[in-house]
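ARCHIVE CARD
Drawer: 12
Card no.: 0347
Subject: one protein chain, sequence and derived structure
Cross-reference: see card 0346
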Amino acid sequence: MTAYAYLRKSVVHQDDPHNSAEAQEAAVRAMATRYGENGSLMILSDWDKSGRLGRAKRPGYDRLWQAIESGEATAIYSYSMSRLARSVGELVRLFEACQERSIPVRLHADVVDTSTASGRMTATILASVAAFEADVAGERMRASMQAKAARGERVGTVAFYGDHDGEDTDAVLAAFREAGSYSGAAKLLNERGVKPRGSRRGWWPSSVQVVVRRLDPSVNKTERGVKAGKKDFLLARLLRCPTCGTSLTGTRDRDGRRVRYSCRLGTALPHPRISITESLVLPAVKAEVARLVLPETVGLASDEGERSRLEARRTRWLEMFADGLIDKRERDTRLRAISDALAAMDTRSELLTLPTITWTEPIPEINAVLRALFEKIDLDPETFQPVKFEWAVPGWRA
């Protein structure tokens, strides 16, 4: 049985005396000494970590929770409530978990001791104040970003392509105007040896697009074909290019009878093969689906823990967007991935009630079933035939 102290600061400056590592540790050790626990005090810390982050992103905080849940901790010490967390929900969960196990939480700056009724009431009030302060800080950050954008100043600290030596924006624009497309420009840049930033494989159409649209806002923002994730194809989001790892894009011919899956980067990067028709892949997929064990012989592991983690992740991304830490595009991308993961879990659960899987249902429904069965399908680089099916639940394969 050990008393634990938790220290944290989002941004650490060597010359900052406020809430420094030394100041926080000295305060909690003095407080623990008053309660006779300094000798057994275990110090945990997370530096350069936001209080908005959950357990997965804060190792010290995760270890603190493990000590609480295992009953190893006899008391929790911290400099202030805001050092523990910046979310009312997270603080309430922490206080409730400690209260259920009769573990007192003692805070130096807030003068809180949850072993008393008044201390528990004060902790609840101060949790709301801590969240309010974080919201105000987020509002100030967003206002500052909007003011900079209005003045035409750069928002953020990430350098643009062209800011570093050796980055040739003129070459990128020239290649785009010569080729007339992002994929064609990427191919030209790779052939000419123009180095991109941070990519060993060369230029990608998406990276060309970012540079061109920033430098020339007059470029029309037109749609570029069918997205790889579109669900009205049987094998959408399943087939991966064996050369570059991107999802193959489904397209139909003019009469709608033949479906082809292609790598959209095949014209920008060297590929042994870039496409295959659905009719050549489907027999192998059907044969693999036929290996599904009958529902009554399959046990589905509980998904409740994973569902809780996904919901917590959804809440975290929403909070980060509200604080101005991510933009709308990033938020929507993350939330879409979480929704897809939850939908796949629902479909896997429904599979257990189906006597057989038929191929006469609407295409989006069949695709949902296939994506619930398989995480991905690996293809041979030369033939584009399936070589490996990665099952979502390996025990379902006979």
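Annotation on reverse: The longest helix spans residues 117-150. The chain is about 45% helix and 15% strand.
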